[in-house]
Predict the structure.
Amino acid sequence: MLEVLFPNINYAKLVVLALCLLLTLAITVCSGKLRRVSFGEAALYVFYILITSHFYLFSYNSVDSAEFQLYLGAIFLLTVYFCRNAIGTFSFILLIKRLSLWFSLLFVGANILLVVVSYSSFVTSGNFYGLISNSNMLAAYFVVICIPSLFSFAFNESRPRKYLYWCFVAAAIIVLFLSRSRTGLLALIFLLFYMVFIWRKISISKKFITAILLVFVATFSSVYFINKYEGQGVFSTRDKLFQLRFDAISEKPFLGHGYGSQKYSQFDYFNIYNGQEKGNTLLAVFEEFGLVMGLAIMILLVIALKRAIFLFGSSRETSVFAFSLITASVSLMFETWLFQFSGLLSLYFWVLIILSFSLPKSKRWRATIN
């Protein structure tokens, strides 16, 4: 729907990012201060250069927007670096937290309004897609950004705003169920288990009882999601995508097909996928970059995720980002938005990873941000 209303939205994103880059660069130059680049940031920049070089050297039959996506990604990385220079790491973290809340309130509110006003106009095959043209991607926005953000503020804010945030949490879960996204449900279940695990105010026995209750609720809820497509198996919509990924990897196992390759993405009579929908991020990375480079990317990503979840999760003020990275990890097992730099999910994920690189492992920063 957004693409229909704003046909040149990707170019608008490019302009906005470029303006932010120029502004933060100007502030950095005027202040005369350049913060050091951490080892994690440096590794990320090196891998991005390798990905771009690999694209120009080995890409085959890539989607039309692949080169544009790489331009966006480069501008985005520079913008994040200079923004961190301009306002400081902790201020940047708090800004992202506040922006994610505003986005969540607006996004959840707009989708609930569509449900109330014209639900049937935004449903395909029984799945609500709302402001996003794909119900699975709608669910991804909810579980990666909206629900974690709203949960965090609902737990930490005082009355009466606490009640407002809980109402939005309930609304977000309702929309998630209407989307009938199995990946979204799975991500929400992982998030709830993690929140129970880190909840320090309840005893281990109560955590165990709560976990059992969650298992029962998840089991009964899954019946509604499993029957999403009548007459088809649970993984029927992914089987073909996985097989295509294996075919692509076996054809060029070492060099890969290049960033954004769509040679093994196709349309068929039963399942319709766009050129960048590949069903699993790990397999997509191996397909595009080969086994050697792909394995290096995934190792770096897992290490970065583990560190970021630990650091963000150790402070109440930043626990929302740990929530988001956990649900994002689940989503990426069945979606491939990680390197789609024109999408908000990808930008949000990477800005969290980059900011986590800037945080020390010591406890002093947690007192600073709290």
